[in-house]
Design goal:
It is a single chain. Helix content is 45%, strand content 12%. The protein contains 24 helices and 13 strands. The chain is globular and about 70 Å long. It starts with a helix and ends in a 6-residue tail after the last helix. The chain binds flavin mononucleotide (FMN), iron/sulfur cluster (SF4) and FE2/S2 (inorganic) cluster.
Length: 571
């Protein structure tokens, strides 16, 4: 409940005054240090009065590829004479609008496809005290092939299951379908559900709708256009595992999706599909939405649990995994939005349909977000198993502006970058892993031939440095060390011996981080630079040894100033 209290205080004052925090501490009998430790963790809360116009420019992959650096520099120039406390400009991590880059937030309202003129005019509106209205990313419902109920009564899988109560049958079909988690790790869903089902304790179902990795926008689309499938998937999980409570954890930048889901949940309650007596069966499942207080780390499943419990979102040591010790120390199923919506599809249409829906041996349909330098950035629904070439050129319109493809990230910074020569790789768990990358969350980012890959590696590592929760040393210190190292490389002029020493240090650092970090964030930090060294080594050598950026991105005054001016995203 602490977040509701903190939000209410911030709404009244614009920040969290000390006196209010003290009053909250005595009202709730919570030590002040605990309240402060939570309030200071989340970027959403202000401990000091913010500027009248707080302008945040998304600095991450897709926005970076779409001119975010220049946009920020130009906006800083335009407000260089602003009085103290009037305008504050700084970077922010991915705002979840990667398909309409560059994105900014002005006083927490998100605007997309921003030019310096529009950014300036929004800031001036905020200074005049005018109400700002965020851009809505999509309007109207889009029909999706994943919907098993295009022209029939929704919640069919749930109705059938309530009648048969064949819980084992559901698990068997998910197992046969080989449904895997769509949040990044690809863990078999039936195993997770089965583990929770076997335990006698009280248990929970949690939907991870935090999607905050740069380039990841598919869950936003699913929640907008298929909210009924998500609600149904969560109820099915509850019934099969015996959990009576579900929590849909959504990132706070998704106001519109929060409203859509809230409406869908209310509709389901009215129709008797949720509550204490589902469709008159005596079965029970309650579902509510929890709005994230913010930060990429909240998407890590154990950090997400900590956030729901009202703590700092610091990942837990694992094992035990959430399936055994999860929310409130009880067994908990945590699945991604897209994982849940696959369940009713499989149950209604059958495993054979699911197998046939994919291509080349892969199964099912997949939502991917494509952003960066492509002609038609957006979210696409496609058969799993098709080639990246088809995704990029047939769906996303190819590289924009007559340029050619240089590289692509199959799934945001954590997948690293693959060169254009690998564009025939298929969109498939196994094939992408064999290619040294991953299917991840389907966040495809396209880089044209003007892109500097060392700059992109630095951009990705910076993102992780900014988003590290700081709990463990390898990640907290290692990510900063890696940023320092790469920033130095982009400035060139190192003797060869020093470069070799740096490469050795990078290998050691990468090994230490991947083996000793508590969670996946710290473990994946080395991936972007390792992939760039593997596929674009000559480009890195040119920077470091010859002081040359083949793409003309680094070695400019703006690029040199960049890191020095950048403030970490965390307060
Ligand atoms: C730093 C970090 C951020 C993550 N963010 C998300 C996220 O936003 N959404 C998500 O579903 N999974 C995210 N994950 C993966 C989750 O920890 C977890 O594996 C996933 O929610 C399980 O659901 P699935 O089995 O359906 O994929 C993240 C992992 C890490 C390490
Ligand atoms: S690896 Fe990084 S994000 Fe994960 S617990 Fe450690 S410091 Fe926090
Ligand atoms: S909104 Fe900028 S990278 Fe996602």
């Amino acid at each position: 409940m602490i977040f509701d209290d903190l939000r209410a205080i911030q709404l009244r004052h614009g920040f969290l005054p000390k006196a209010e925090l003290r009053a909250l501490s005595s009202r709730t009998q919570t030590p002040l240090y605990q309240i402060h430790s939570v309030a200071s963790f989340y970027p959403h809360f202000h401990l000091a009065p913010p500027a009248r116009a707080e302008l945040r420019v998304c600095a991450d992959m897709s926005c970076h590829l779409n001119g975010a650096c220049d946009l920020r520099a130009e906006l800083e120039r335009r407000f260089v004479n602003a009085r103290r406390g009037e305008v504050e400009i700084r970077d922010v991590s991915c705002l979840g609008r990667c398909d309409h880059a560059p994105a900014i937030a002005v006083n927490d309202h998100i605007f997309t496809a921003i030019t310096a003129e529009r950014g300036e005019s929004l800031v001036r509106s905020a200074l005049r005290g005018e109400e700002l209205h965020a851009d809505l990313p999509q309007q109207g419902r889009v029909a999706c092939a994943s919907d098993p109920y295009p022209d029939r009564e929704k919640y069919g899988a749930l109705r059938a299951l309530v009648a048969t109560k064949d819980w084992d049958g559901v698990l068997a079909r998910l197992k046969e379908a080989e449904l895997r988690g769509m949040g990044g790790a690809g863990f078999p869903t039936s195993m997770k559900w089965d583990l929770v089902r076997k335990q006698a304790a009280e248990k929970y179902i949690v939907c991870n709708a935090d999607e905050s990795e740069p380039g990841t926008i598919k869950d936003r689309f699913i929640m907008t256009h298929l909210p009924h499938l998500l609600v149904e998937g969560m109820i099915l999980a509850g019934l099969v595992t015996g959990a009576k409570q579900g929590i849909l954890y959504i990132r706070h930048e998704y106001h519109w999706q929060e409203e859509i889901l809230g409406e869908e949940i209310r509709r389901a309650y009215r129709a008797g599909l949720l509550g204490r007596n589902i469709l008159g069966s005596g079965l029970e499942f309650e579902l509510r939405v929890f709005v994230s207080p913010g930060g990429y780390i909240c998407g890590e499943e154990s950090a997400l649990i900590e956030a729901i419990e009202g703590h700092r979102a610091e990942p837990r040591n694992k094992p035990p995994f959430p399936g055994v010790v999860g929310l409130w120390q009880k067994p908990t199923v945590i699945n991604n939005v897209e994982t849940f919506i696959n369940v009713p599809q499989i149950l209604v249409r059958g495993v054979d349909w699911y197998k046939a829906a994919g291509r080349n041996g892969s199964r099912g349909l997949k939502f991917v977000g494509v952003s960066g330098h492509c002609a038609k950035p957006g979210i696409y629904e496609l058969p799993l198993g098709i080639s990246m070439r088809e995704v990029l050129f047939d769906y996303a319109g190819g590289v924009r502006g007559g340029f050619t493809l240089k590289a692509f990230a199959p799934s945001g910074p954590s997948s690293g970058y693959l060169p254009a020569s690998m564009v025939d790789v298929r969109l498939d768990f196994k094939e992408l892993a064999e290619a040294g990358s991953m299917l991840g969350s389907g966040a495809i980012v396209v880089c044209d031939d003007t892109t500097c890959m060392l700059d992109m590696a630095l951009n990705a590592v910076r993102f992780y440095r900014n988003e590290s929760c700081g709990k463990c040393v390898p990640c907290r210190i290692g990510s900063q060390k890696m940023v320092d190292l790469l920033a130095r490389w982009t400035q060139g002029g190192l003797p060869e011996a020093q470069y070799h020493a740096d490469l050795h240090l990078l290998d050691e650092l990468s090994l230490a981080m991947s083996q000793t970090s508590i969670c996946g964030l710290g473990q994946i930090v080395p991936a972007p630079i390792q992939s760039v060294l593997k596929h674009f080594r000559a480009e890195v050598d040119a920077h470091v040894l010859q002081g040359k950026c083949p793409s003309g991105i680094c070695f400019t005054a703006a690029a040199r100033a960049g890191e020095a001016n950048r403030v970490g995203i965390r307060p």
